[in-house]
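User: quick one, sequence for these tokens?
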């Protein structure tokens, strides 16, 4: 194998192990054994377990972000909401190992951040879209940040749940998410008040 091919092989092996066992339990010895190489080969390419983990996480975060951003092509806010929900669920279905790695707590901070920071990046993009929509509908544009966090969090948390149960079908889950979010957004009060507090 060339150095580049070996590096990719090690990343594939490590990705599968991190998804299966988590960062803490996975060892350099196990990565090396599954790849059919000695431990020094892993150290040579990545410097240690933290190094290979950081590369795996960075790649997954970039892949997920690209996947969601590329899915946002519609002009109407409801279409964008559908596309974002479907893109996240598609990623969970097609890259289950990657999603497990991203949502699992880890002591290692990657260079691009954590799953939480990735969700914040996605929420920032949603905020821009909602801000325009809010302005046109007479809502306070400053509240777009709050609503974007709520929407992204709702989809991400539901995605984590769906990862384990896989029922109902992916498109049905997306349709229900969009139904809840869109019906809520389309019937918002301009100045909501709590009913149980004085």
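Assistant:
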């Amino acid at each position: 194998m060339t150095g580049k091919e070996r590096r990719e092989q090690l990343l594939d092996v490590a990705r599968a192990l991190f998804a299966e066992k988590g960062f803490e339990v996975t060892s350099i010895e196990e990565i090396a054994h599954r790849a059919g190489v000695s431990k020094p080969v892993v150290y040579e390419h990545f410097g240690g377990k933290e190094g290979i983990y950081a590369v795996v996480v960075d790649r997954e975060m970039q892949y997920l972000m690209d996947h969601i951003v590329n899915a946002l092509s519609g002009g109407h806010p409801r279409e964008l909401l559908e596309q974002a929900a479907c893109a996240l669920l598609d990623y969970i279905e097609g890259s289950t190992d990657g999603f497990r790695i991203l949502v699992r707590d880890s002591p290692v901070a990657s260079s691009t951040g954590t799953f939480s920071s990735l969700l914040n990046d996605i929420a920032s993009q949603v905020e821009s879209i909602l801000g325009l929509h809010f302005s046109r509908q007479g809502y306070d544009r400053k509240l777009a940040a709050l609503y974007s966090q709520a929407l992204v969090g709702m989809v991400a948390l539901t995605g984590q749940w769906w990862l384990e149960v896989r029922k109902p079908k992916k498109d049905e889950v997306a349709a229900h998410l969009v139904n809840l979010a869109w019906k809520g957004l389309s019937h918002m009060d301009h100045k909501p008040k709590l009913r149980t507090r004085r």
